[in-house]
Design brief:
This protein is an all-alpha fold and 343 residues long. It folds into 3 domains: 90 residues, Alpha Horseshoe (Serine Threonine Protein Phosphatase 5, Tetratricopeptide repeat), CATH 1.25.40; 109 residues, Tetratricopeptide repeat domain (Serine Threonine Protein Phosphatase 5, Tetratricopeptide repeat); 99 residues, Tetratricopeptide repeat domain (Serine Threonine Protein Phosphatase 5, Tetratricopeptide repeat, Alpha Horseshoe), CATH 1.25.40.10. The chain is 65% helix and 0% strand. The chain is built from 18 helices and no strands. Helix 14 runs antiparallel to helix 15. The protein is globular. The N terminus and C terminus are likely disordered.
Length: 343
């Protein structure tokens, strides 16, 4: 409910319901309210001092999602709340109770925690087990490892298979990633039809970004791929030039999807970069992703973070959140899922 991906966005309304439910003693509501304070959802400030007691109280009442979330707060939170040993113990508590989010976070922790605690075999085992469960939350994390060649050998086909399995269980972000695999630089051969298929699935699950990208594909190709491709790109270019909100970001996303002619690429990239320099935060976000992932332009992580930092400083919360995901505080550990996995 909170991020508009798996369900419809209704931040303030959700917060009010969580407050009422928590006041009435429903620990799931306390969990979601605490999670929302931690992540800054629904218009709430990001505030660990509110999140910790709410999550701790729910965890004490055997609400194991709260235990998993609290474990993450203790592992990756600020110095004021950070307690590594306590955090790991809470992840174990959630996983031992067969809570899949706890197992996924614990598995990722063992994969990437620095020092002697790191145990890749144990981490992969926890993720593989979680991938076999319903819903298969571990599949999306394993897929990312195969897609990026982290811990395991890069394997785009296996990544798509795992993303597709998670997508089959209505995990909208996994549907998007499956579609992304068929875009330029995604690892699989460019296939706009498959991109559209997975984006449509994610859009049906109310994933905002997928709906936007799907509209871009339809603008360029038409619903049945009958539109003139050049005319569609001209429309996006015109929107960008005219300053239509989201127009330059849409042009950037079209390039990432693999639309447009090669001869026009440099002109489009210049337009997107100029829009970012002129304060278009959405264009900055899309351009930064291209820089970070090495899509269309040469990979430059430092430049990507600088672009995101510019948008964040201008008040773009999405860019601020992505910076925190790309640069988690030490000690290294997985960040909590951006989408609350409660079903």
């Amino acid at each position: 409910m909170m991020n508009g991906r798996g369900t419809r966005r209704d931040g303030p309304g959700a917060i009010e319901l969580y407050r009422r439910g928590c006041d009435a003693g429903y620990q799931r509501a306390c969990t979601e309210l605490g999670y929302s304070y931690w992540r800054g959802y629904g218009g709430l400030p990001e505030d660990e001092t509110w999140a910790v007691p709410l999550l701790a109280s729910a965890c004490d009442e055997r609400e194991y999602r709260a235990c998993a979330m609290l474990g993450q707060v203790y592992i990756v939170g600020s110095d004021a709340v950070r307690n590594h040993a306590k955090g790991v113990a809470l992840l174990h508590k959630a996983c031992d109770a067969n809570h899949q989010t706890g197992c996924v976070l614990l598995g990722t922790h063992y994969l990437f925690v620095p020092g002697p605690e790191r145990d890749a075999s144990r981490g992969l085992g926890l993720l593989a087990t979680a991938c076999r469960k319903d819903p298969p939350e571990g599949c999306a994390v394993l897929a990312e490892l195969f897609a990026e060649g982290k811990v395991v050998e890069r394997n785009a086909s296996e990544a798509v298979r795992l993303y597709a399995r998670a997508c089959d269980y209505d995990l909208a972000d996994a549907c998007v990633e499956a579609g992304n695999a068929y875009t330029l630089g995604g690892g699989m051969p460019l296939d706009v039809q498959k991109v559209a298929h997975f984006y449509q699935r994610a859009c049906d699950l109310h994933h905002d970004a997928a709906c936007v990208r799907l509209r871009i594909i339809e603008t360029v190709h038409g619903s049945g791929a009958r539109n003139d491709k050049g005319t569609g790109m001209v429309t996006l270019e015109r929107h960008c030039t005219a300053g239509v909100p989201g127009g330059c970001a849409a042009l950037a996303d079209a390039l990432r999807i693999g639309l447009g002619e090669p001869d026009d690429k440099e002109r489009y990239l210049t337009m997107v970069s100029d829009a970012c320099q002129n304060g278009d935060n959405a264009a900055c976000f899309s351009y930064a992703i291209m820089l970070w992932q090495g899509e269309i332009v040469e990979k430059d992580a430092e430049a990507a973070l600088a672009v995101l930092g510019k948008a964040c400083a201008a008040g773009d919360r999405t860019s601020c959140q992505l910076i925190r995901q790309l640069q988690p505080p030490a000690p290294s550990a997985p960040s909590a899922p951006s989408e609350p996995p409660a079903r």
